[in-house]
Amino acid sequence: MLEITNAQRAEVLTQALPYIQKYNGKIVVVKYGGNAMINDELKQQVMEDVVLLHLIGVKVVLVHGGGPEMTETLKKIGKESVFCDGLRVTDKETAEVALMVLAGKINKNLVNLLQAKGGKAIGISGIDGHMIDCEMKDEKLGYVGKIKKVDVSPVTDLLEQGYIPVVSTVGCDKKGNVYNINADTAAAHIAGEMKASRLITLTDIAGIMKNKDDADSLIRKVDLNDIEDLIAQGVITGGMIPKVECCIDAIKCGVHKVIILDGRVPHAILIETLTDEGAGTMVVSDLKKNAGF
Question: In angstroms, what CA-CA distances link 264 with 38, 42, 91, 194, 268?
C-alpha cells in the first residue's frame, strides 16, 4: 500500500472540504448491486464509503438487490432461475425466497457490516410500513412488482433519528402478496419520492460509453434530451436501457442528478462525491441548467 505523510492526508481532507460542505444535510440514495456486492473487498469499501458520508452529515439511504444470492439459494432448493426481458420470473415460492434472502440474509448482513464500520444502520424492506405498494407487472413474470406508490416516511423517520436506512427491494399489495422488485426501479422511485440530491447506482460497467469496448469513450455527462438519440444510435443498448430508463424516471420525479457508477472501482462513491474527478456517467435533466450542485 502507498504510504502518505500526515501533511498529504491533511491536504486530501482540505481538498474534500468544499464537497463535504455541499453534501452536508443532503439526501443521497445509493443503489447497491453488481460485482461490488459479491466481491468481499469491494463490499468492505462500499460500506466504508457509506459510513464516512454518514459521519460527515450526508443523509445516505442504501437500497440493495441481491440477484446472484437469489439464484444461488434457488439452486440449492432445486429450483431453476428463469428470466424474461431481463427480469426473474417469480412464482409464489420464488417470491418467498426473495423475501427470505433479500429482506433477511442480505439486508441484515449489510446492517451488520455498516455497524462494524462505525455506522448506525437499520434494515427495512418495502413491506415494512407498506412502504412499497405493488401490483403484478406482467402475468408472464408472476410476482414481479410494478410499483404503484411509495411511502418513504419509514425511511425519513430513520434518517431523522440518525440511522442509515438499508432497504431491501421487496414489496406487497393490499392482499398481502409479496413481490420481487427490480432494485434499480425501486431505488429510482424512493429517490424520486424523497427528492434526493443524488441517486448513485452502482453497476459493473464504467458508465455510458460511446464504444462499449473502450473505457476512454466514457460519456461523463448526459441530459434527458440526448438519451433518446444515444439509444437510437445504438450507444445505449441491452441491459443499459432499463438502467437509463430508471435514471430518467428518478429525474422526472425530482432527483437532482443520477450517477451511473462503476462499482468495480475501489471507493468509487467517495471519488464521485468528494473529488472534482468524479466517476461514471452523470444524468441530469438539462446540462445547461445543471452546471453546479
Answer: 10, 7, 32, 27, 8
